[in-house]
Amino acid sequence: MNTAPAPASATGIPSVLPSAPVEYPCLPISSYNCSNLTGDREDNDTKKLKPSTYKWRLVIAYDGTRFSGWQYQQSTPTVQCIVEEALTRITKLERKDLLLVGAGRTDAGVHAWGQVAHFITPFNYDNLKGVHKALNGLLPSDIRVREISSTVPEFHARFSVKSKIYHYKIYNDTIMDPFHRNYAYHSIYKLNVATMRDAARHFVGKHDFSAFANTSRNDRVPNPVKNIFHFNVNEMGPLVQLEVEGSGFLYRQVRNMVALLLQVGREAVPPDIVPRILGSRDRKELAKYSLSVPPHGLCLLVVKYNEEHLGLPPGGPETSFGRNHSISKCKLPSF
User: Fold this and answer.
1) How many other CB atoms are found less than 10 A from the CB of residue 170?
2) In angstroms, rounded to a whole number, what is the distance separating the alpha carbons of residues 290 and 256?
3) N- or C-end of the chain: fewer Cβ atoms within 10 A?
């Protein structure tokens, strides 16, 4: 950092992190308590930055099996809660000062490889490798910060999003592979992947997806019109992977689209059912043909932004992608 490290607190973590790496013990998930996080419980998304602040971008991967989704909840562990807890320990800032915001509010059980978040600090870092190592040292093993960088003030993890890519995995065989049980939905019915591809093409383009959205109390009357850039159905042995990229998605939209494609793959309904349900703009119409699929097959793969939002600010530290360790070669004695 640009300033000298402050004295360590009772927890042993300095209030200003030094550039040199510091070892922190990983804490078990039971030790995280969201109710201990002080500060305003309002949504961080729309709060304005104070002057003379620095903004930082995180790329986060997590196994969502044990968590109640991304978004902060006081009574149950979420990914945002645990990342905030780690950040408060490192920065000595309160939740209301960090203003941590994620790109997507993944549901309970949903995984992520490329979740993006930002937070702010009143101080600058001149090296991010120590912060990066400290964060992953405090986080449980099923959450990892893959990347940390400084970012321009205009960047916003949620509102600057250009598109998102999701994967949904289906294991299509009579017996479930135990190594896929937490990351793929098991379908014992033999799926017709070709008809699923035909049906998926109907989702591509700009449509009103009201029929594929569940009601959410957190929705701020979202615009139901979304643009789907591609929807691919790939078969890799028994694994069927659905990949969809869109400008945005309504609550449960991806899982509801996948559920209908499963019915098409089982040949219970024809591919042209998709435009008919889209045109109805009625969630009850979809419910006649399919139910939602479970969350564990879904993964937020990539969040895309415009290049101007990803540039480093002048004088900012280099992006940290983690640190590789090497073993020094031993000199063997000569005889």
Assistant:
1) 26
2) 8
3) C
Q: Round to whole Å and give the CA distance between 196 and 190.
A: 12
Please give the positions annotated as active site.
107
Distance CA(140)–CA(166), nearest Å, equals 24
User: In the chain, where does DSSP find H-type helix?
Assistant: 79-91, 95-98, 129-138, 193-201, 253-265, 273-280, 283-287, 307-310
Residue 87: count of CB within 10 angstroms of its CB? 24
Who contacts 127 (Cβ-Cβ below 8 Å, separation ≥6)? 1, 19, 317, 318
Tell me which H or E stretch contains 187. Answer: strand 185-187
Question: Rounded distance, CA 116 to CA 49, Å?
Answer: 18
Q: How many residues in total does the chain contain? A: 335
CB atoms within 10 A of CB 181: 13
pLDDT tens for 136-180 read: 999 999 999 999 999 999 999 999 999 999 999 999 999 999 999
Cα 150 from Cα 127, distance rounded (Å): 10
What are the two backbone dihedrals, phi and then psi, of residue 174, each rounded to the nearest 5 degrees?
A: -65, -35
161 to 143, 219, 306: CA distances (angstroms): 22, 17, 8
